[in-house]
Design brief:
mainly alpha; 13 helices; 2 strands; 57% helix; binds zinc ion
Length: 331
Amino acid sequence: MNFDLTQIIHDGTYFLISVLGKAVFAPLIRDSELYWFYWLSAFLIAWGFWRICLLNFSPNALGFRENFLSKKIWLHPSAIRDYKFYLVNSLIMAWLFNSMWLDPIAIKSFLNEVSNVSLVDAPASKDTHVIVKIAYTLLFFVVYDFGRFVAHSLLHDVELLWKFHQVHHSAEVLTPFTAYRVHAVDLAIMAWVPMIFTATLTWIFEQGSGSGIGFYMFMGFHVIIWFFNLIDHLRHWHVWVTYGPVLNKWFISPAHHQLHHSADPRHWGCNRGYELAIWDRWYGTLVLPDENPPALTLGLHEIDKEKWKFQWQLQLQPFIDAIKCIRFGNK
Ligand SMILES: [Zn+2]
Ligand SMILES: [Zn+2]
């Protein structure tokens, strides 16, 4: 075998700079969820909500400056762990997707061959009737949301998978970067399970229409998912935003997800949905948020805290716990 050290150093440096550059400059990348536009929309929604509550003399009003922009949150050791994890994970995920066993093109063509379904970029036929396209866009959203609920439920209910999902729940404070504190195994489950559901839906529509089909998009996202992206950062941000007593039964507000992160045993495993609350209602895991924010302690059980202090622990501890779980069946 011929090792060209200079070439390896060159390729490695290029890989590091390009991946980290993309991660750092994500706020300038239009089809990134971290695009500046979504930060601004989250900020304006949170500020608007706070103003309305202030006018109504709600205790919500106390929380905006102290929590939304507080150094106590943004420079908390747990938040700093999130930033580091975001960078480390972007390298790991890029490496996994560049390696032969997680090559997205190879996976896609393999699945296309097996299932004869175009999974991701189904070419939209110009002949698709507008009603069919609207129906596909709506159903794709519902099925995708259900797929994400199922995946998230597996991560909570299957002990082995919970070992990996714990990484996300180990955050002691929330910032939008906590959304990226997700182990690679967790990410794989969250990507593949919904894909099976949406692939099946696409297959049904393609069989019916006899051609490829695509959904309506806006700014690089499925149009309905784009709409929810406007508020998505608030799921992991210390401002208590709810949709009110009626809509809270139908949609998962940012406050629902903050309850999902609560260390209080009464909240464990609640509110697993992403946008629609109907799946949690059906599964019996919906906990409605009050209009006024409760004093929540976030994270895992106290005794677990020491396990999630360092980057290597966040990446490797789940494998250690998973092996123990397989060998001894322990909790
Ligand atoms: Zn969870
Ligand atoms: Zn979360």
